[in-house]
Design brief:
Helices cover about 45% and strands about 15% of the residues. Among the domains are: about 140 residues, Rossmann fold (3-Layer(aba) Sandwich), CATH 3.40.50.300; about 120 residues, no CATH class. By secondary structure, it is an alpha/beta fold. The protein is built from 18 helices and 14 strands. It has a six-stranded mixed β-sheet.
């Protein structure tokens, strides 16, 4: 469905837009986004394409006097030929600018308009910027909108946002709404293949890097094969016939597009010989499975990537619900200490988290060694069951849902 170009609350009576908004999954970030809009002149909502940014923005705008501009539309870009003049005519509205990284020249105009508005008493709810390339957007906005903008990342759908049959499909299909909510497995799989192809053939070339689509596809597939593993740049370089610097460039691009996560090793304990290479995850589990030709859960459970896919799925769900400014790491030392995820919250509390696929998880010595080094405030083993119970001294076995609820409680406490 084409995106609406201009609307106010009254125009939202349009049945097509109402259908989108009423059928969408309630996103847990909506309340936080509304709070930021009410307290900052500009808010940047970042996330990969098709994660639901536009739908969420439309839902918020339904209750506001708002204008929506899609900066991939030539018609909407033409309206901004004299951007300052056009936007100043709508200073009483929330202006939603979608794919704003396509027009980086706008940021200087926004700064002037925000400062003019402040002198008139317009201190909040001026601009909502939607972007799908984090570093490009942050680079532009941080230079010109410092002190005037708040940032929020919208990931694909996570476990607390779905229930019932949707929950059963979340790991296999991933969290992109169109994939998760597809009528059947084949349609979901085809949507993900089309998503991958569109990124390779259209979106990435539009951002500037001239990388052959087939080369980047092979790189993406290699990352999926090595899901949750340490980055071995020399091995990847040898397989692609390029050098290490080129691999770093490819990886930077995928991270900037919010398609790949580079999880850095814990670096606070310098007395140990630590692993220095990051772990790399394709962020959406459904995209991992599409890249590897895995159509359904039965195929997945017999595939070598199953464990790595599950670990990445759990970690992405956890990071989607952590408080803002939480730092995330993994821990691994040459002496055998290992922990899948270390969370350091803004209040300086630290959690150590291990991920297990088993219904009867066991704690390995490496996790205890890691906890001895890190000295976390809480120790959890996230497993595929539903209960929470003591697994060992100071270690709890916990379900995905329960650890996400704990994270929401921490988020609320920090916000207070």
């Amino acid at each position: 469905m084409p995106k609406s170009k201009l609307f106010t609350t009254s125009i939202l009576a349009n049945q097509e837009l109402k259908s989108i908004i009423t059928s969408m999954i309630k996103r847990h970030l909506q309340t936080k986004l509304e709070y930021l809009i009410g307290n900052y002149p500009a808010v940047a909502l970042l996330g990969p394409r098709q994660a639901g940014k536009t739908t969420l923005a439309l839902a918020i705008a339904e209750h506001r006097n708002a204008i929506y501009l899609d900066l991939e539309s030539e018609q909407d870009r033409a309206k901004l030929t004299q951007a300052e003049l056009y936007l100043s005519q709508h200073e009483d509205k929330l202006v939603i600018l979608d794919e704003v990284q396509r027009a980086p020249e706008l940021f200087k105009n926004l700064r002037g308009l925000i400062d003019q508005g402040r002198r008139k008493g317009l201190r909040s709810a001026r601009f909502l910027l939607l972007g799908s390339a984090s570093i490009e957007l942050l680079k532009q906005s941080s230079e010109t909108l410092a002190g005037r903008i708040a940032y929020l990342e919208l990931p694909p759908i996570h476990a607390l946002e779905v229930s019932g049959s949707q929950r059963e499909h979340l790991w296999t299909r991933g969290g992109f709404p169109d994939s998760l909510l597809a009528a059947n497995a084949q349609l979901s799989f085809q949507w993900r293949l089309d998503f991958i192809r569109t990124y390779l053939e259209r979106d990435i070339p539009q951002l500037g890097p001239r990388i052959p689509a087939e080369t980047l596809r092979r790189f993406w597939v290699m990352l999926a094969h090595n899901q949750s593993e340490l980055l071995n740049a020399s091995k990847l370089a040898g397989s692609l016939g390029v050098d290490g610097k080129t691999i770093a460039k490819y990886l930077d691009l995928m991270v900037d597009l919010l398609l790949v996560r580079r999880l850095q090793p814990w670096h606070h304990n310098t007395a140990k010989r630590m692993v220095k290479s990051p772990k790399v995850y394709v962020r959406d589990s459904g995209i991992v499975h599409a890249l590897l030709g895995i159509h359904n859960q039965e195929n997945l459970l017999s595939h070598p990537v199953c464990g790595g896919s599950w670990e990445g799925f759990i970690i992405e769900n956890i990071l989607a619900t952590t408080p803002q400014n939480t730092e995330a790491y993994f821990y691994r030392s040459s002496g055998g200490a290992e922990c899948d995820l270390i969370l350091q919250f803004p209040n300086q509390k630290t959690w150590a988290i291990e991920v297990k696929r088993s219904l009867t998880p066991k704690v390995e010595k490496g996790f205890y060694f890691a906890c001895d080094d890190v000295q976390p405030d809480a120790r959890y083993v996230v497993y595929s069951g539903t209960e929470t119970y003591p697994l060992a001294q100071d270690v709890e076995a916990i379900s995905l849902d329960n650890i996400l609820f704990k994270l929401k409680d921490i988020d609320y406490a920090i916000d207070q």
